[in-house]
Amino acid sequence: MSANGSSETGCRSEVRATNSTSSEKELSITASIISMTVGIFSNSVALFILIKSYHRIRIKSKASFLLFASSLVVTDLLGHLINGSLVIFVYGSHKKWESFDPHHIVCSIFGACMVFFGLSPLFLGSAMAVERCIGVTRPLFHSTALASHHTKKLLGLTWLLAALVAILPVLLWRPYKVQSSRSWCFFHMEEPKDWLDMLLPLLFSMLGLLALLISIVCNTVTSCTLLQSRFSRKHRCKGRSYHIEMICQLLTIMLVSCICWGPLLVVSTKATDEPTSLSLLLVVRMATWNQILDPWVYILLRKAVLRKIFMLFYSCWVSKSHNFHQWKRSILWSSVETSTSGSGPNKCHCLDRFPLPDTAIKSST
Fold first, then answer.
1. Mean pLDDT throughout 141-158?
2. Percent above pLDDT 90 for the chain
């Protein structure tokens, strides 16, 4: 009886473990599909808006900024499409890497795509910040030296640098490794064998942090210059308006990148011997939100939308201030009426004390 009871208990625990594993798998697949769908939709809408603005704009400096922004959105769109498809394929194959990837080809492609589509948005964000900083602080140099073909070359160099970092582990015969969750591939973050296994993720994190630092410095200089020009009124309102629109977009992109990519870049600098699959998977999922939130910056933080938001807040502020002034007037009038009503009888008593003039007596008689 005890043997039968223990066997039944073991079977029940195995069934519960199987059910929990299958439910976690369905939840992960559902989350991946939702994230992929939302990312593709958001980036497609933002790309349509940017292409429409790029064809209508006639300002050279803004055209180069829109070219950078469109490239960033295209990169995020491809990242969602490729990485999301690979994740769904891995979950659909029940994470059996030994059966569907015996030669580690899919893992190498997966890891290279993770690194490329991770570094490219950071590099493009820093390039956009540098371009805006030059356009605001040195407008003459920007108009003469930074032509459209220079912008396209800079875009190509940005993508080339990210691609070199992505294929560097394959070139050094240190291919990407399947992580402990068995749902994705990345550097040898757990139990590194030698200094090269520690150098590759350190290079990835240092380049990403450097790109964020360049973005912070350039956006700070650009914002200070715009504020100074606004107070000194050296520039026209038209030129200042689209500069403010672009710097608002850049500051938001920088903030989103710091929040989403900062934890992964910091964790990548620490190669430990202990398994950190849960924390690493969490920060990777945080980093994927960067590609979802980036397009909404261009969808929401446009000049027309910002003007509507400003008018909405302004109307609310005006209505509140108007109501406040009306409340103050009502309080003042009520206090005046109270004081008048309180002094009325005293005036009558005072009038009773003095005799009426002869004219008043004649008229009363």
1. 84
2. 28
